[in-house]
Recover the amino acids of this structure.
């Protein structure tokens, strides 16, 4: 956390342990992380969870992936990669980046630059 310029508060450390303590990458919502914190010994308010996730994103420790313009997932894997969104369960998972090919992007409008490209592939069971 210190590498991201964040003060390592007890609550941030607790949430970070839930996110990456086992070394696995995660896609969480603020609500799902809040539920996990409630199940642990550390009680953290939902507002603190939101603020911490936003701070982690701003520090470059996580990425926010928005689905449908309203539902935010927070990804602990910060390299560029696509996602599958499972419509039936509302789950977000990594998609194989080596199978994705983007041939061309439109030019950014004058005075802007492309910051990142998010690819979310929506899946529906057939």
């Amino acid at each position: 956390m210190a590498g991201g310029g964040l003060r390592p508060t007890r609550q941030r450390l607790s949430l970070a342990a839930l996110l990456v303590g086992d070394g696995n990458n995660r896609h969480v919502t603020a609500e799902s992380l809040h539920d996990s914190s409630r199940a642990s010994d550390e009680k953290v308010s939902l507002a603190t969870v939101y603020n911490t996730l936003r701070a982690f994103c701003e520090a470059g420790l996580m990425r926010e992936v928005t689905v449908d313009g309203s539902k935010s997932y927070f990804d602990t894997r910060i390299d560029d990669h696509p996602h599958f969104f499972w419509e039936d369960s509302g789950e977000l998972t990594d998609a194989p980046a080596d199978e994705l090919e983007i041939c061309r992007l439109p030019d950014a409008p004058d005075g802007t630059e492309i910051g990142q490209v998010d690819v979310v592939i929506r899946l529906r069971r057939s």
